[in-house]
Design a protein that fits this description.
Length: 488
């Protein structure tokens, strides 16, 4: 934990923030104007040095920049309460930063950024649940649970993300029949926009609990979460089958065979350009098992359009499978300056009734520029509709058994600014979203799109009045998470 004393020793007493100057609308390290409003005593630190503010003034997308006036590294949950109260009093907007993995400014603000990484403790592990700070990474939760022979039921493909961050959005996994991460939350600790601390669950303050899960941080700051755990199996076997982009019907047919049989723990599509020219599909399917009960490859891959012998098979521990994309990202960071590439991602939830037709029509229009090697990829994640239980995680209407998250995770060819590339891809995203919305599609809000208030109203549909009501109740002065632009 970074303490006030340590901060003073590092930067010198003259650099310590002492208050907020309401005339200049700036944090003050000196006497300021006569109306200087002193900040409350903090266990952590409030920073205004340019390097820290610049680092927190951009996200993974590298498209939107918004320089915060200050950054809070809380030493306690009480620090967050105090600073939210202070910011409410002085009309300063507040956003929470996990790992900064949204791509279009969703977590940015020119007010106060609260970094949640210092709230990373594993507080407790029981027989079927784990309680962690919101800044804990999913890989840290996985390791802590695995030491007890347990695991969270599901993970996003990359587990270097914070628990609080994914719970604010949804957290879509490779598994198909368990819902998303927010469907496996038992309790939350939340600081609302009035600075009050709440413990909420399905049976206590349900209004707040629901809107915090997939609610994009509009009503509070998650500080702690209690999550489901289940027994962990020791091993994973992953099957990979490749198809050409022209073989959309065949890959969908094989995917549906695996989904309908329900013998795999997860099945999804990966799209990439391994040769630098031609987009390919890769059907991935995983089964978890123990050493005394290995899976039968021939049985699991029977009746597909390809021979079981054509499948590439990878065996690993369960925990290695959970972290399978971590080494990929780390390699890209070292070799491709991945952190500084523009990432105008497109992410949409599609109704099962028309998902195949949509993807089949869109994929042939994409090029290596959309899936440019080596870091541009895409995914199609099927999710059981009846397992998606949180009302503010917006999914397409319909009666299909599955809905589908379709991702085009575009990266720029080189690091650094490229306004023309960003504009081209943002226009693509606008066009593809309009096409998806016409068939009932909804936005998965980690991607790069300019959304108006009318767009958000359409996104939330019948839930819009309820969201407005809860926003007014829990963030009455509208200071929290302005980045998405939901409330202006």
């Amino acid at each position: 934990m970074v303490t006030r004393r340590r901060f003073l020793g590092t930067l010198g007493a003259g650099a310590l923030i002492v208050g907020f100057d309401p005339v200049e609308r700036a944090w003050a390290t000196g006497p300021g104007s006569g109306g200087l409003q002193r900040i409350p005593h903090l266990d952590g630190v409030l920073l205004t040095d340019l390097a820290t503010r610049q680092a927190d003034g951009r996200d993974l997308g590298r498209i939107v920049k918004r320089l915060p006036r200050a950054v809070l590294r809380p030493g306690s949950v009480r620090d967050i309460q105090k600073m939210v109260e202070f910011c409410r009093e002085h009309r300063i907007q507040v956003s929470t930063r996990g790992q900064g993995h949204s791509t279009h400014g969703q977590g940015l603000t020119d007010g106060l950024i609260i970094e949640n990484r210092s709230l990373s403790a594993i507080h407790s592990i029981g027989a079927d649940s784990i309680t962690v700070g919101s800044g804990a990474l999913w890989r840290e939760a996985a390791h802590a649970a695995e030491a007890r022979g347990l695991t969270p039921p599901l993970f996003t493909t990359y587990v270097g993300l914070s628990v609080g961050g994914t719970l604010s959005v949804g957290g879509v996994p490779a598994q198909n029949n368990l819902g998303v991460q927010i469907d496996h939350v038992r309790e939350l600790e939340v600081v609302t926009g009035d600075g009050r601390l709440h413990r909420c669950s399905p049976n206590h303050e349900r209004d707040l609990f629901e809107v915090m899960l997939g609610g994009l941080g509009q009503c509070g700051v998650i500080t702690r979460a209690t999550l489901d755990l289940v027994p962990a199996r020791a091993l994973a076997r992953n099957y990979m089958i490749r198809y050409q982009v022209t073989e959309t019907a065949r890959v969908w047919n094989d995917l549906h065979i695996l989904l309908d049989r329900g013998e795999f723990d997860g099945a999804y599509l990966l799209m990439s350009v391994p040769d630098g020219r031609n987009i390919t599909y890769q059907l991935n399917a995983v089964v978890f098992h123990n050493a005394d009960n290995p899976p039968s490859d021939q049985h699991l891959l029977r009746d597909l359009s390809v021979s079981p012998a054509s499948a590439e098979i990878e065996n690993s521990t369960y925990l290695e499978w959970v972290k399978r994309y971590d080494p990929v990202i780390e390699l890209w960071q070292r070799q491709c300056a991945w952190d500084d590439l523009l990432k105008p991602w497109f992410d949409v939830m599609l109704p099962g009734e028309s998902a195949q037709a949509y993807v089949s029509e869109v994929m042939p229009t994409l090029t290596a520029r959309d899936y440019g090697p080596p870091t541009g990829i895409g995914f199609l994640f099927p999710q059981r509709r009846d397992k998606l239980t949180r009302p503010f995680f917006r999914i397409p209407p319909g009666n299909s058994k599955y809905v589908y998250l379709f991702d085009i995770l575009t990266s720029s060819p080189a690091p650094g600014p490229d306004p023309a590339f960003a504009a081209e891809m943002l226009e693509r995203n606008r066009r593809l979203h309009a096409k998806a919305r016409a068939i009932g599609g909804t936005r998965y809000p980690i991607g790069s799109q300019d959304f108006t208030r009318a767009d958000w109203r359409a996104q939330y549909g019948e839930r819009w009045p309820d969201l407005v009501r809860r926003k007014a109740k829990y963030d009455p002065d509208n200071i929290l998470t302005p980045g998405p632009g939901i409330f202006g």
